[in-house]
Specification:
Blueprint: H1 16-19, E1 23-24, E2 26-31, E3 37-42, E4 45-49, E5 54-60, H2 71-79, E6 81-85, H3 92-97, H4 108-111, E7 116-118, E8 125-127, E9 132-143, E10 149-161, E11 166-167, E12 170-171, H5 173-176, E13 179-181, E14 187-189
Antiparallel strand pairs: 1-13, 2-3, 2-6, 4-5, 5-10, 6-9, 7-8, 9-10, 11-12, 13-14
């Protein structure tokens, strides 16, 4: 089939997210200017550069009490920092609990019964049990086409890796099973990996 997005797809559900999949989940923790903390998952998330290391996530949609955006972007706009926590299979239910449309006063760490640990390079908490957490300083918030679509870019200033996911000095995804977002209500976990050598590499 072929369709133009402006004309509609004619399917029971929008296939776009199912086409661009799997996508890593950035579990973004932030602190507001008033000291309240927020934790929310974003599947439009990825690493975008090595040197210096940088990540991005995109927020779509808005809450009526957040001036045209969501809690995460509003907090980052105020404080200039955020932490991108990675999600493993064991944390799937807690992650899902933090995805609800909660009011800005709700502390998602407490709501999902998650332990938090202060970050080392920024004034923000991270998810203690996360397999890895990336402390970030905001570099840009870019408005995207469409209502309440924002791209958030940050430089990674601190990296936490859970010791148990390292094997021979390398991160082994088969130990912790990273969770990824598919389309619709679907998720996937990594159970198997394989290697390929690029042309020209030894």
């Amino acid at each position: 089939m072929f369709y133009r997005p402006e004309d509609g797809h004619g399917l029971p559900h929008n296939p776009f997210n199912a086409i661009v999949a799997p996508r890593p989940i950035g579990w973004i923790s932030t602190k507001g200017a008033d000291g309240t903390e927020n934790l929310a998952p974003y599947s439009f998330f990825n690493a975008v550069a090595y040197t210096p290391p940088q990540v991005m996530f995109a927020s779509t949609g808005a809450k009526p009490d957040r001036d045209g955006t969501k809690d995460s972007v509003a907090n980052i706009r105020d404080t200039g920092v955020f932490c991108a926590n990675l999600v493993d299979f064991a944390l799937k239910d807690a992650m899902n609990q933090t995805s609800g449309p909660w009011s800005r006063e709700v502390d998602e760490f407490a709501h999902a019964a998650l332990e938090r640990t202060p970050c080392d390079t920024i004034d923000c908490s991270r998810v203690t049990a996360a397999p890895a957490s990336l402390e970030c300083r905001l570099t840009q918030i870019v408005p995207l086409l469409g209502k309440a679509n924002f791209l958030v870019l940050g430089e990674v200033t601190g990296v936490h890796i859970r010791d148990d996911i390292l094997k021979d000095g390398m991160i082994d995804p088969t130990i912790y099973h990273p969770l990824s977002r598919m389309g619709y209500r679907d998720y996937a976990k990594v159970d198997e990996v394989f290697q390929m050598t690029r042309p020209g590499q030894g």
